[in-house]
């Protein structure tokens, strides 16, 4: 019977074509608006590294001044000073550790047709690539020994490597950056992490910025006294000179620690507290604020990657869908009311209310499927328009298989919900009254 009712539903689309088209369009617009918004929220709030997000931690140590500080206040900055960052790097905490700061360097390629241009990147330590599962196209990252010596080596992004060297493997070639010669040791493959949890601070578009173009050892950037490309917070005046800046309490470095498992969090927290206690004995960390650890999901929440505005937009979109459903209910009531005579005759011939209910509900499901197809097309169009607004939105305005299936499920479910009242009303038709009126 389902197949028979389904075919009836398909044929019913041709009845009152204007009314049917209006129902389908109303449903499609509501589904498209909610799905487009939900898709962006889904991508923004996803787990960017699910297999290890519970064992990658950001440590925060508050080294701010005690003036106007109240217990429970958040740190004034979410980065670390050079002293704290390097102390954590040189410790035995966790299984891997890396510290990062942003850089921007002038690139001087050998090809004269390109000319000098600026590229942005980061200065991490050797563990960075393994900690965040960076995919390599050619070569590999540098080794810990290069961190100790501050070797002038570089890992390029695929985009930058192709711009300078074309399709050739550039590993082993030398490239002038920031006025110094660097040897290319690796090229990363396309690496689109969404959200870019490891580079929320200091990048142009936060968690949804484009890929970094080059990576050099942290120690090399310090040795050449490269300037920072990112945020810096200083509480006091800093004496002139690069070394004086390093010795200051300015915060400008992001740190990450990877543990063997999520259960090692307590041990890492204990180490962090012990470290802070030792630093207070040296006259530092005067706020005596608690030391915080955030895993990947907690870090995304703490940095408000998905803000209240995004959540409010999703609720408003679903509110619009509810409004479309109310209109669809009205249209279905009008569509089914003109078929009261048909229902009365079927009831007189022995059809039960249950059979009538099933027939009309399946017809609304067909409307939902058609509305889902149209809604999907409208959603793709809406996402394309959203992606045109900025590069950051380009990363999040795309639909995956989960959202593709959700679109159809939402359209069918919406149609079924909208059809419950009109279908129930259709089942209440009294056969005798309809037969008398014929």
End-to-end distance, in Å? Answer: 28 Å
The shape is elongated
Rg value: 30 Å
Number of strands: 11
Proportion of strand residues: 5-15%
How confident is the prediction overall: mean pLDDT? 83
SSE order: HHEEHEEHEHEHEEEHHEHEHHHHHHH
Order of strands in the sheet with most strands? 3-4-9-6-8-7
Number of helices: 16
Category from helices, strands and their pairing? alpha+beta
Number of domains: 2
Helix content: 40-55%
Low-confidence stretches: 432-436
Q: How can the largest sheet be summarized?
A: 6 strands, mixed, barrel
GO molecular function: transmembrane transporter activity
Subcellular location: Cell membrane
InterPro entries: ABC3_permease_C, MacB_PCD, Macrolide_Exporter_MacB
GO cellular component, one term: plasma membrane
Write the layout of secondary structure elements.
Layout: H1 2-12, H2 17-44, E1 56-60, E2 80-81, H3 82-89, E3 96-108, E4 117-123, H4 128-131, E5 136-139, H5 144-149, E6 153-157, H6 158-165, E7 174-177, E8 180-188, E9 214-215, H7 218-223, H8 242-247, E10 251-258, H9 265-281, E11 292-295, H10 296-302, H11 308-337, H12 340-348, H13 353-387, H14 391-396, H15 401-427, H16 431-437
């Amino acid at each position: 019977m389902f197949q028979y009712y389904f075919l009836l539903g398909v044929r019913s689309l041709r009845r009152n074509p204007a009314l049917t088209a209006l129902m389908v369009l109303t449903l499609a617009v509501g589904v498209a608006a909610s799905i487009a918004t939900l898709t962006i929220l889904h991508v923004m709030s996803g787990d960017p590294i699910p297999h290890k997000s519970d064992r990658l931690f950001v440590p925060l140590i508050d080294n701010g001044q005690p003036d106007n500080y109240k217990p429970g206040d958040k740190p004034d900055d979410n980065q670390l000073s050079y002293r704290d960052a390097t102390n954590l790097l040189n410790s035995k905490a966790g299984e891997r550790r890396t510290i990062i700061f942003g850089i921007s360097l002038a690139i001087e390629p050998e090809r004269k047709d390109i000319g000098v241009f600026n590229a942005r990147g980061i200065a991490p330590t050797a563990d960075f690539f393994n900690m965040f599962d960076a995919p390599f196209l050619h070569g590999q990252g540098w080794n810990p020994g290069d961190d100790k010596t501050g070797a002038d080596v570089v890992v390029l992004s695929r985009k930058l490597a192709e711009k300078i060297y074309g399709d050739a493997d550039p590993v082993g070639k030398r490239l002038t950056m920031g006025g110094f010669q660097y040897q290319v040791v690796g090229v990363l493959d396309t690496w689109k992490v969404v959200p870019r949890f490891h580079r929320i601070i200091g990048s142009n578009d936060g968690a949804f910025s484009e890929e970094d173009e080059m990576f050099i050892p942290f120690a090399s950037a310090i040795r050449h006294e490269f300037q920072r490309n990112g945020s810096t917070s200083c509480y006091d005046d800093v004496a002139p000179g690069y070394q004086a800046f390093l010795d200051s309490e300015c915060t400008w470095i992001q740190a990450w620690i990877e543990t063997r498992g999520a259960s090692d969090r307590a041990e890492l927290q204990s180490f962090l507290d012990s470290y802070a206690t030792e630093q207070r004995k040296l006259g530092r960390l005067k706020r005596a604020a608690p030391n915080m650890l955030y895993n990947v999901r907690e870090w995304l929440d703490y940095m408000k990657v998905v803000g209240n505005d995004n959540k409010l937009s999703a609720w408003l979109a679903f509110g619009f869908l509810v409004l479309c459903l109310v209109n669809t209910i009205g249209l279905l009531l009008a569509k089914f009311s003109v078929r009261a005579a048909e229902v009365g005759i079927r009831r007189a011939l022995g059809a039960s209310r249950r059979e009538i209910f099933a027939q009309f509900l399946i017809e609304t499901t067909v409307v939902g499927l058609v509305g889902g197809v149209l809604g999907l097309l409208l959603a793709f169009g809406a996402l394309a328009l959203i992606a045109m607004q900025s590069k950051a939105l380009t990363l999040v305005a795309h639909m995956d298989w989960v959202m593709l299936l959700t679109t159809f499920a939402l359209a069918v479910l919406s149609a079924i919900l909208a059809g419950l009242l009109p279908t129930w009303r259709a089942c209440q038709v009294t056969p005798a009254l309809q037969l008398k009126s014929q």
